[in-house]
Amino acid sequence: MKLQRLLGITMLLLSRKRVGAQELAERFEVSLRTIYRYIEAINAAGIPIASYAGVDGGYEIMDEFRIERQIVTLDDLSSIVTALKGMQSPLQDGQMDHLLAKISALIAKNEQQRMEEAGEQLIIGLSPWTRVEADKDKLAELRLAARNRNVVWLTYSTPEGDTAERAVEPIGLAWKGNAWYLYAYCRLRKDCRRFKLSRIRKLHVDMEVFPRRKERLEDLDARWGMPDGGGKTRSHT
Q1: 3-class SS at 195?
Q2: How far is CA 26 from CA 10, 21, 31, 49, in A?
């Protein structure tokens, strides 16, 4: 999701004069430290962003910079649209729809006709082959629970075939190895775990709001991607 956030931040800065770091952090649901890294990455990509301190401070794209449509080819835009469509279906995100509409608006009518005539050469499908609708519902519920920091009760089928009840604090969702996973803090194990969505038999979103923990989705994903599984934090329940 990092690419989506970088694109979203860039589009937001292009549409507004100045945006504060705290507003960016809240809007894109990341830490201030992550926003600082994203701004550095956008600068490194050649989009000059100026930083201003004070009450009215924040970030803004320098006045002399303009995105020229000519620097983005039809193939570039087609690739972006394909990637966004792949994420759009399983996530059922209104913001994703809005972003896709913005990107599509950059494609001229004659180019749209060329794309339609050529047809799709690539499809990115993030929905599993089976249980599509059920997984969509789970994704929507768990994503909202992670955003609102609501405790979730799971009826979970373990790899051994047993069924367990778990109370978890959802951190986020990840598409890994052709499957969706919930990254969460498990209150039973008192540690972070990841739960495969296809093994979640039932879930109930509680009204209890848990305090934000130091673990972040990006950090857990990077740690579990290490050859040794990242040491203390296990990559399975």
Answers
A1: strand
A2: 16, 9, 8, 19
CA distance 206 to 204: 6
Alpha-carbon distance 35 to 2, whole Å?
Answer: 11
- Cα dihedral 93→121→67→51 (10° resolution): 50
Environment class of residue 28 by beta-carbon count within 10 Å: exposed (0-12), middle (13-18) or buried (19+)? middle
Predicted TM-score (pTM) of the model is: 0.51
Quickly list DSSP for 121-185: S-----S-SSSHHHHHHHHHHHHHHHHHTEEEEEEEE-TTS-EEEEEEEEEEEEEETTEEEEEEE
Over residues 93-139, the pLDDT tens digits come to 555 566 666 666 556 556 666 656 655 444 444 455 445 556 778 88
